[in-house]
Design goal:
2 domains, Alpha-Beta Plaits, elongated, Rossmann fold, six-stranded mixed β-sheet, 24% strand, four-stranded antiparallel β-sheet, alpha/beta
Protein backbone atom coordinates (compact mmCIF):
# COMPACT_ATOMS: atom_id res chain seq x y z
CA UNK A 1 0.00 0.00 0.00
CA UNK A 2 1.24 3.48 -0.84
CA UNK A 3 1.31 6.10 1.86
CA UNK A 4 -0.10 8.49 -0.73
CA UNK A 5 -3.20 6.35 -1.29
CA UNK A 6 -6.42 8.37 -1.35
CA UNK A 7 -9.17 7.58 1.13
CA UNK A 8 -11.45 6.48 -1.72
CA UNK A 9 -10.56 5.69 -5.33
CA UNK A 10 -13.27 4.56 -7.74
CA UNK A 11 -12.68 3.70 -11.39
CA UNK A 12 -15.43 2.93 -13.92
CA UNK A 13 -17.94 1.72 -11.33
CA UNK A 14 -21.01 0.05 -12.83
CA UNK A 15 -24.06 -1.41 -11.10
CA UNK A 16 -26.94 -2.97 -12.99
CA UNK A 17 -29.74 -4.65 -11.08
CA UNK A 18 -31.32 -7.83 -12.39
CA UNK A 19 -33.96 -7.26 -15.07
CA UNK A 20 -33.07 -3.54 -15.19
CA UNK A 21 -32.79 -2.00 -18.65
CA UNK A 22 -30.27 0.67 -17.63
CA UNK A 23 -27.39 0.87 -15.17
CA UNK A 24 -28.13 2.30 -11.72
CA UNK A 25 -24.48 3.42 -11.62
CA UNK A 26 -22.98 3.94 -15.04
CA UNK A 27 -19.19 4.30 -15.20
CA UNK A 28 -18.60 6.46 -12.12
CA UNK A 29 -14.99 7.45 -11.39
CA UNK A 30 -13.98 9.62 -8.45
CA UNK A 31 -11.20 10.15 -5.92
CA UNK A 32 -11.53 11.36 -2.33
CA UNK A 33 -8.36 12.51 -0.60
CA UNK A 34 -7.53 11.62 2.99
CA UNK A 35 -9.17 14.06 5.41
CA UNK A 36 -11.43 15.52 2.74
CA UNK A 37 -15.12 16.33 3.12
CA UNK A 38 -16.68 15.05 -0.11
CA UNK A 39 -20.37 15.32 -1.05
CA UNK A 40 -22.43 13.32 -3.54
CA UNK A 41 -25.43 15.20 -4.93
CA UNK A 42 -28.16 14.28 -7.35
CA UNK A 43 -31.92 13.80 -7.69
CA UNK A 44 -33.72 10.67 -6.51
CA UNK A 45 -32.58 7.70 -8.54
CA UNK A 46 -29.28 9.33 -9.52
CA UNK A 47 -27.25 6.49 -8.00
CA UNK A 48 -26.01 8.12 -4.77
CA UNK A 49 -27.18 5.49 -2.29
CA UNK A 50 -26.24 2.64 -4.63
CA UNK A 51 -22.71 4.05 -4.88
CA UNK A 52 -22.41 4.45 -1.09
CA UNK A 53 -23.75 0.93 -0.56
CA UNK A 54 -21.11 -0.50 -2.89
CA UNK A 55 -18.29 1.50 -1.27
CA UNK A 56 -19.30 0.21 2.17
CA UNK A 57 -19.45 -3.45 0.95
CA UNK A 58 -23.20 -3.80 1.56
CA UNK A 59 -23.88 -4.17 -2.18
CA UNK A 60 -21.82 -5.87 -4.89
CA UNK A 61 -20.69 -3.92 -7.94
CA UNK A 62 -21.32 -5.26 -11.43
CA UNK A 63 -17.89 -4.05 -12.55
CA UNK A 64 -15.25 -1.46 -11.79
CA UNK A 65 -12.28 -1.06 -9.47
CA UNK A 66 -12.53 0.37 -5.93
CA UNK A 67 -9.88 1.02 -3.31
CA UNK A 68 -10.61 2.27 0.21
CA UNK A 69 -7.54 3.48 2.15
CA UNK A 70 -5.40 1.54 -0.33
CA UNK A 71 -7.29 -1.76 0.07
CA UNK A 72 -8.91 -3.40 -2.95
CA UNK A 73 -12.60 -3.74 -2.06
CA UNK A 74 -13.14 -6.85 -4.17
CA UNK A 75 -10.06 -8.71 -2.86
CA UNK A 76 -10.13 -7.58 0.77
CA UNK A 77 -13.64 -6.47 1.82
CA UNK A 78 -12.93 -7.30 5.49
CA UNK A 79 -10.05 -4.78 5.59
CA UNK A 80 -12.31 -2.19 3.98
CA UNK A 81 -15.08 -2.77 6.53
CA UNK A 82 -12.59 -2.25 9.35
CA UNK A 83 -11.76 1.18 7.94
CA UNK A 84 -15.20 2.58 7.16
CA UNK A 85 -18.12 3.76 9.25
CA UNK A 86 -21.61 4.17 7.83
CA UNK A 87 -24.71 6.07 8.83
CA UNK A 88 -27.60 5.21 6.55
CA UNK A 89 -30.66 7.34 5.85
CA UNK A 90 -32.88 4.94 7.77
CA UNK A 91 -31.83 4.45 11.42
CA UNK A 92 -30.57 0.95 12.26
CA UNK A 93 -30.61 1.16 16.05
CA UNK A 94 -32.27 -1.41 18.32
CA UNK A 95 -35.01 0.65 19.96
CA UNK A 96 -35.34 -1.74 22.89
CA UNK A 97 -31.74 -1.26 24.00
CA UNK A 98 -30.15 1.79 25.56
CA UNK A 99 -27.87 3.98 23.50
CA UNK A 100 -24.77 2.59 25.20
CA UNK A 101 -25.97 -1.00 24.70
CA UNK A 102 -26.26 -0.32 20.96
CA UNK A 103 -22.71 1.02 20.95
CA UNK A 104 -21.44 -1.92 23.03
CA UNK A 105 -23.04 -4.46 20.67
CA UNK A 106 -21.38 -2.75 17.70
CA UNK A 107 -17.98 -2.79 19.41
CA UNK A 108 -18.33 -6.49 20.28
CA UNK A 109 -19.42 -7.44 16.74
CA UNK A 110 -16.34 -5.64 15.39
CA UNK A 111 -14.20 -7.71 17.74
CA UNK A 112 -12.96 -4.65 19.61
CA UNK A 113 -13.88 -5.98 23.06
CA UNK A 114 -15.21 -9.14 24.67
CA UNK A 115 -18.80 -9.07 25.85
CA UNK A 116 -19.61 -7.86 29.34
CA UNK A 117 -23.22 -7.63 30.61
CA UNK A 118 -22.90 -4.05 31.89
CA UNK A 119 -21.12 -0.83 30.98
CA UNK A 120 -19.28 -0.69 34.32
CA UNK A 121 -17.86 -4.18 33.65
CA UNK A 122 -16.44 -3.25 30.24
CA UNK A 123 -12.70 -2.50 29.98
CA UNK A 124 -11.55 0.99 30.94
CA UNK A 125 -10.50 1.68 27.32
CA UNK A 126 -14.07 1.08 26.11
CA UNK A 127 -15.62 3.24 28.84
CA UNK A 128 -13.14 6.02 28.16
CA UNK A 129 -13.84 5.90 24.40
CA UNK A 130 -17.63 6.00 24.86
CA UNK A 131 -17.42 8.87 27.35
CA UNK A 132 -15.08 10.83 25.09
CA UNK A 133 -17.30 10.47 22.00
CA UNK A 134 -20.45 11.19 24.03
CA UNK A 135 -18.82 14.40 25.28
CA UNK A 136 -17.85 15.48 21.75
CA UNK A 137 -21.43 14.96 20.60
CA UNK A 138 -22.99 16.37 23.78
CA UNK A 139 -24.96 13.24 24.60
CA UNK A 140 -23.36 12.19 27.92
CA UNK A 141 -26.66 12.39 29.83
CA UNK A 142 -28.71 10.59 27.20
CA UNK A 143 -26.51 7.74 26.01
CA UNK A 144 -27.74 5.42 28.81
CA UNK A 145 -31.43 6.05 28.06
CA UNK A 146 -33.54 3.66 25.92
CA UNK A 147 -33.16 4.61 22.27
CA UNK A 148 -36.95 4.83 21.84
CA UNK A 149 -36.97 7.74 24.30
CA UNK A 150 -34.38 9.76 22.35
CA UNK A 151 -35.21 12.43 19.79
CA UNK A 152 -34.35 11.97 16.12
CA UNK A 153 -31.35 14.25 16.52
CA UNK A 154 -30.09 12.30 19.53
CA UNK A 155 -30.48 9.02 17.63
CA UNK A 156 -28.37 10.42 14.78
CA UNK A 157 -25.66 11.41 17.26
CA UNK A 158 -25.79 7.92 18.73
CA UNK A 159 -25.33 6.41 15.28
CA UNK A 160 -22.28 8.61 14.77
CA UNK A 161 -20.80 7.41 18.07
CA UNK A 162 -21.48 3.81 17.10
CA UNK A 163 -19.96 4.38 13.66
CA UNK A 164 -16.79 5.88 15.15
CA UNK A 165 -16.14 3.23 17.82
CA UNK A 166 -13.84 1.17 15.59
CA UNK A 167 -11.99 4.37 14.63
CA UNK A 168 -12.78 4.32 10.90
CA UNK A 169 -10.67 6.26 8.44
CA UNK A 170 -13.71 7.08 6.28
CA UNK A 171 -17.20 7.92 7.53
CA UNK A 172 -19.99 7.52 4.97
CA UNK A 173 -23.15 9.52 5.66
CA UNK A 174 -26.20 8.73 3.53
CA UNK A 175 -28.74 11.53 4.05
CA UNK A 176 -27.75 11.82 7.75
CA UNK A 177 -30.08 14.75 8.50
CA UNK A 178 -33.17 13.45 6.67
CA UNK A 179 -36.22 13.96 8.85
CA UNK A 180 -34.47 16.27 11.31
CA UNK A 181 -35.68 19.80 12.04
CA UNK A 182 -33.51 22.78 11.08
CA UNK A 183 -32.06 23.24 14.55
CA UNK A 184 -31.13 19.55 14.87
CA UNK A 185 -29.54 19.57 11.40
CA UNK A 186 -27.43 22.62 12.23
CA UNK A 187 -26.40 21.15 15.57
CA UNK A 188 -25.49 17.79 14.05
CA UNK A 189 -23.26 19.41 11.44
CA UNK A 190 -21.49 21.36 14.13
CA UNK A 191 -20.68 18.11 15.92
CA UNK A 192 -19.61 16.42 12.67
CA UNK A 193 -17.15 19.26 12.01
CA UNK A 194 -15.77 18.78 15.50
CA UNK A 195 -15.45 15.02 14.99
CA UNK A 196 -13.68 15.57 11.69
CA UNK A 197 -11.21 18.01 13.19
CA UNK A 198 -10.57 15.96 16.31
CA UNK A 199 -10.24 12.52 14.71
CA UNK A 200 -9.10 13.37 11.17
CA UNK A 201 -11.92 11.36 9.61
CA UNK A 202 -12.60 11.56 5.89
CA UNK A 203 -16.32 12.25 5.32
CA UNK A 204 -18.29 11.16 2.27
CA UNK A 205 -21.83 12.56 2.30
CA UNK A 206 -24.98 12.19 0.25
CA UNK A 207 -27.61 14.84 0.82
CA UNK A 208 -30.58 16.62 -0.71
CA UNK A 209 -29.81 19.76 1.29
CA UNK A 210 -27.56 21.91 -0.88
CA UNK A 211 -26.62 24.17 2.03
CA UNK A 212 -24.93 21.13 3.61
CA UNK A 213 -22.99 20.46 0.41
CA UNK A 214 -21.77 24.09 0.44
CA UNK A 215 -19.54 23.10 3.37
CA UNK A 216 -17.81 20.31 1.40
CA UNK A 217 -14.25 20.59 0.08
CA UNK A 218 -15.42 19.05 -3.17
CA UNK A 219 -18.66 17.69 -4.51
CA UNK A 220 -19.76 15.34 -7.24
CA UNK A 221 -23.14 15.64 -8.97
CA UNK A 222 -24.66 12.42 -10.28
CA UNK A 223 -27.56 12.10 -12.70
CA UNK A 224 -28.87 8.87 -14.22
CA UNK A 225 -25.95 7.05 -12.63
CA UNK A 226 -23.28 9.21 -14.28
CA UNK A 227 -20.97 11.96 -13.04
CA UNK A 228 -22.15 15.23 -14.60
CA UNK A 229 -20.04 17.68 -12.58
CA UNK A 230 -17.24 17.60 -10.02
CA UNK A 231 -15.24 20.25 -8.19
CA UNK A 232 -15.36 22.56 -5.21
CA UNK A 233 -18.67 24.34 -4.56
CA UNK A 234 -17.04 27.55 -5.80
CA UNK A 235 -15.81 25.91 -8.99
CA UNK A 236 -19.22 24.39 -9.70
CA UNK A 237 -20.90 27.78 -9.27
CA UNK A 238 -18.36 29.64 -11.39
CA UNK A 239 -18.46 27.04 -14.13
CA UNK A 240 -22.22 27.03 -14.53
CA UNK A 241 -23.56 30.34 -13.32
CA UNK A 242 -22.72 34.01 -13.67
CA UNK A 243 -23.32 37.03 -11.51
CA UNK A 244 -26.66 38.77 -12.06
CA UNK A 245 -27.96 42.28 -11.57
CA UNK A 246 -31.34 43.02 -10.07
CA UNK A 247 -32.61 46.37 -11.38
CA UNK A 248 -35.80 48.38 -11.27
CA UNK A 249 -36.96 51.88 -12.22
CA UNK A 250 -40.10 53.97 -12.07
CA UNK A 251 -39.97 54.14 -15.86
CA UNK A 252 -39.87 50.40 -16.46
CA UNK A 253 -40.59 50.70 -20.20
CA UNK A 254 -37.50 52.87 -20.62
CA UNK A 255 -35.37 50.47 -18.55
CA UNK A 256 -36.60 47.56 -20.65
CA UNK A 257 -35.74 49.37 -23.89
CA UNK A 258 -32.25 50.30 -22.71
CA UNK A 259 -31.49 46.74 -21.66
CA UNK A 260 -32.65 45.50 -25.06
CA UNK A 261 -30.46 48.08 -26.82
CA UNK A 262 -27.48 46.70 -24.86
CA UNK A 263 -28.38 43.16 -26.02
CA UNK A 264 -28.63 41.97 -22.44
CA UNK A 265 -30.73 38.97 -21.49
CA UNK A 266 -33.14 39.62 -18.63
CA UNK A 267 -36.24 38.34 -16.88
CA UNK A 268 -39.02 40.38 -15.33
CA UNK A 269 -40.37 39.08 -12.05
CA UNK A 270 -41.05 41.97 -9.70
CA UNK A 271 -37.72 43.49 -10.72
CA UNK A 272 -35.46 42.97 -13.73
CA UNK A 273 -32.96 40.13 -13.33
CA UNK A 274 -30.21 40.86 -15.82
CA UNK A 275 -27.60 38.36 -16.95
CA UNK A 276 -24.26 40.14 -17.22
CA UNK A 277 -22.90 37.87 -19.98
CA UNK A 278 -19.24 38.48 -19.07
CA UNK A 279 -19.74 42.23 -18.65
CA UNK A 280 -19.00 43.99 -15.39
CA UNK A 281 -21.88 45.23 -13.26
CA UNK A 282 -20.24 48.66 -13.15
CA UNK A 283 -20.16 48.97 -16.96
CA UNK A 284 -23.81 47.95 -17.32
CA UNK A 285 -25.05 50.40 -14.69
CA UNK A 286 -22.89 53.21 -16.10
CA UNK A 287 -24.39 52.69 -19.57
CA UNK A 288 -27.96 53.10 -18.31
CA UNK A 289 -29.52 56.56 -18.50
CA UNK A 290 -32.80 55.72 -16.76
CA UNK A 291 -32.84 56.57 -13.00
CA UNK A 292 -32.84 53.35 -11.01
CA UNK A 293 -34.93 52.65 -7.93
CA UNK A 294 -33.25 49.31 -7.26
CA UNK A 295 -29.73 48.04 -7.83
CA UNK A 296 -28.36 44.82 -6.40
CA UNK A 297 -25.85 42.23 -7.55
CA UNK A 298 -26.79 38.60 -7.07
CA UNK A 299 -24.08 36.03 -6.64
CA UNK A 300 -24.77 32.59 -8.10
CA UNK A 301 -25.83 29.98 -5.55
CA UNK A 302 -25.01 26.30 -5.55
CA UNK A 303 -28.72 25.65 -6.04
CA UNK A 304 -28.70 27.79 -9.22
CA UNK A 305 -25.72 25.86 -10.58
CA UNK A 306 -27.10 22.48 -9.54
CA UNK A 307 -30.45 23.06 -11.24
CA UNK A 308 -28.75 24.35 -14.38
CA UNK A 309 -26.50 21.29 -14.56
CA UNK A 310 -29.47 18.93 -14.25
CA UNK A 311 -31.48 20.93 -16.79
CA UNK A 312 -28.63 20.69 -19.31
CA UNK A 313 -28.55 16.90 -19.06
Amino acid sequence: MSQASPAVAVQDLVKRYRKAKVNAVDGVSLRVETGEFFALLGPNGAGKTTTISILTTTLAATSGHIEICGYDLRRDPAAVRQRVGIIFQNPSLDMNLSGEENVRLHAILYGLYRYRPAFRLMPAAYRRQVNELAAVLDIERDIFKPVKKLSGGMQRKLEIIRGLMHQPKVLFLDEPTAGLDVESRRSLWGYLRQVREQYGVTIVLTTHYLEEAEQADRLCILNHGRVVAMGSPGEIKERREEEYLELDAEDRDRLRDELKQMNLLFEESGAFTVKLDRRSAHDVVKALDVPLTRLRTRQPSLEDAYLRILADE
